[in-house]
Write a structure and sequence with these properties.
The protein is α+β, with helices and mostly antiparallel strands and about 170 residues long. It is built from three helices and eight strands. The protein has an eight-stranded antiparallel β-sheet with strand order 5-4-7-8-1-2-3-6, with no helix packed on it. The longest helix has 22 residues. It starts with a helix and ends in a 6-residue tail after the last strand.
């Protein structure tokens, strides 16, 4: 009796596995269980023939992807935190964005794109007008961000560094 029970379980398991495999196709019953958002996401990943896309459409829009990223840290006893990214803006303008920042308030903090976190070897991006949330700066025309490895926030009035961030090394 036990042998028949085990055999029945094996057959039932195989039938269930076969049913799940058959339903997993793009036209199977599982599609009926998907919500519209999930179907849309799946459709975005497929070409007109139901296969994976291999052309440029399959890649994410590079203008929405940050080219470089870093984490902001405080300096000289000051508090600074948040994420720093350099990416492409809507009009193919390169933009440095400080997001989710929390920086000590200073009277005239400036943001610099720097080499080795040295503001003397840097490009001034502008005055930091808010000390929390998200703020963006257009990179000046002709500036190649690959030539810089860090960002510095500097208070001119008190001649002190408030925070810095080092970009991750690119691995290719």
């Amino acid at each position: 009796m036990k042998a028949i029970g085990k055999m029945g379980m094996v057959i039932l398991s195989m039938a269930l596995l076969g049913w799940m495999t058959a339903c997993a196709g793009t036209n199977g019953m599982m599609d009926d269980k998907m919500d519209d958002k999930s179907k849309g996401m799946m459709d975005d990943k497929m070409d007109n023939k139901g296969g994976a896309m291999t052309d440029d459409k399959a890649m994410m829009d590079k203008s929405k992807m940050p080219a470089r990223e870093a984490m902001l840290e405080g300096s000289d006893g000051h508090h600074a935190a948040g994420k720093v990214t350099i990416g492409m803006g809507m009009n193919n303008q390169q933009i440095l964005t400080l997001s989710e920042i929390k920086v000590d308030k200073v009277p005239d903090g400036y943001v610099y794109l720097a080499r080795d976190a040295d503001r003397m070897h840097s490009v001034t991006l502008g005055k930091l007008k808010q000390f929390s949330g998200t703020v963006s700066f257009d990179l000046p025309a002709g500036v190649n961000p690959e030539e810089y490895d860090s960002v510095v926030i500097w208070c001119k009035k008190f001649n002190v560094e408030i925070g810095r961030a080092y970009f991750h090394k690119k691995t290719m």
